[in-house]
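Bit of a strange request maybe. I'm writing a small parser for structure token strings and I need a real example to test against, not something I typed by hand. Could someone generate the tokens for this chain?
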Amino acid sequence: MKIQEQIEQYRPWNEQEERDKAVILAQFAQHVQQDLFVRENDIMHMSASAWIVNKSRDKVLMVYHNIYHSWSWTGGHADGERDLLAVALREAMEETGVTDIAPVKEDIFSLEILTVDGHEKHGSYVPSHLHLNVTYLLEADERETLRVKPDENSAVAWFAPEDALKACSEPWMAERIYRKLLEKSGMAAGLPALSPDKNERAAVAEPGGNGRAAVAEAGEPGGNGRAAVAETETAPEKARSVTEPVTATDAVAERVPGAKRQAETLTGQQKEEAGAAPESAGTKHRISDETIGYVGILAKLELNGAEKEQARHDMEAMLDYIDRLNELDTDGVEPMSHVFPVNNVFREDVVTNGDGSAETLANAPAKKDGGFLVPKTIG
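Reply from user aminoacidic:
Good idea to test on real output. This should exercise your parser:
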């Protein structure tokens, strides 16, 4: 069955899918179909995604996307291929390393139109455009070894449903798409209620702009329905404006998902009530549980509670010490390669003992033209 017919027969799950289905079918009617299946169509083109679950339906497999800087599903462009299920399977295997993977059903699992903000890829600028996306439900063996695809992602991991929503730093994708997929796959039990605030893009708009938020890490694109904003929480957390200076330690912390420092820090008593060790006196930086967990994933370490607290203490101490170093006044100080005034000791480049060839050849059974004479090994 052709993909257009599959979309026509697809029964939308909610209003988002109903409206998106109508728009996608309208594009099939208005365009030469081949144009919709190649990314050379700069305005919109077809893509396929995979929502990967384990056999017991209590975990989902996600990748940490290099462009979006967020945990996300797998997927990619059709690039002329009309079998979008094949595209979803290929991308899932390439991006995660799993091979024991198969569709739960070959039918379309979800439909969505996703916005992709302009970004740099392979040294070239890709203009903002739309993905007419078809999603398939795949099942994989969680015991299989995972592998990253360095040109696209930097980590691969299984998440419990609630943790998957928390790991995604893109509010629209987490609440509009991933929550929907969890509901459709029967994995939404116990999820917190949908927060109205998380249905919207960031509340701070660019002056005179198009309503996009101006609170992102500067220069980092969003994509696939992703507003170009940093992690936005409903808790009283202030997002940094792009015009505000970023310190070295802040930059290090914000490169890791969930590592943004909290605007309101817990007191030692609050942390003790929560079962965590109190902060060391004088510690300015706070490393979140999500950051500790993510570092463990990258290092392939399974840390217990005490080890996590020790790692948190060590990382906070390192960031604090960097702040102390940044306070030093280095104006007028010449950069050094060593902290002590030491110099290399060089001798004069003069030959004193000759090349020793005569003494060496004196031990040769046979010699010719200043070299050892040996039997031929090739006739």
